[in-house]
């Protein structure tokens, strides 16, 4: 298991695929395995490539995109998709860092 330093904590990154739509998800956990946040959002109606992920960077997750970019987990956003009242950034998932 790989640990990443984030805001004074060691975290782990769990990735997988949402059961509906099959898009990638990212879950950030602390070193004990407790979930800190789900850093992604499922957009089943959006055409998201197998190497992309939609990042939830609003509400309680504000700032998570910058953290994931800094850690080399995702790329800068390559496009965005509207989900309700917010724009959701879509990034490349940099699998070689996981």
Descriptive notes:
This protein has 98 residues and is mainly beta. It has one domain. Helix content is 7%, strand content 39%. It is globular. It starts with a strand and ends in a 6-residue tail after the last strand.
Number of helices: 1
The largest sheet is: 4 strands, antiparallel
Portion in strands:
35-45%
Which structural class fits the helix and strand makeup?
Answer: mainly beta
Number of strands: 7
Cα radius of gyration in angstroms: 13 Å
Estimate the mean pLDDT confidence.
93
What labels would you give this structure?
globular, 1 helix, 98 residues, mainly beta
Provide the fold topology.
Blueprint lengths: L3 E3 L2 E9 L6 E7 L4 E4 L13 E3 L9 H7 L8 E5 L2 E7 L6
Antiparallel strand pairs: 1-2, 2-3, 3-4, 5-7, 6-7
Structure in a nutshell:
With 98 residues, the protein is mainly β.
């Amino acid at each position: 298991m790989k640990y990443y330093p984030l805001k004074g904590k060691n975290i782990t990154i769990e990735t997988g695929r949402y059961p509906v739509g099959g898009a990638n998800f990212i879950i950030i956990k602390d070193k004990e395995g407790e979930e800190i946040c789900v850093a992604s959002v499922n957009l089943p109606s959006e055409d998201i490539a197998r190497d992309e992920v939609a990042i939830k960077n609003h509400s309680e997750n504000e700032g998570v995109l910058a953290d994931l970019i800094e850690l080399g987990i995702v790329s800068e956003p390559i496009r965005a998709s509207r989900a309700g009242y917010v724009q959701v950034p879509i990034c490349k998932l940099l699998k070689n860092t996981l």
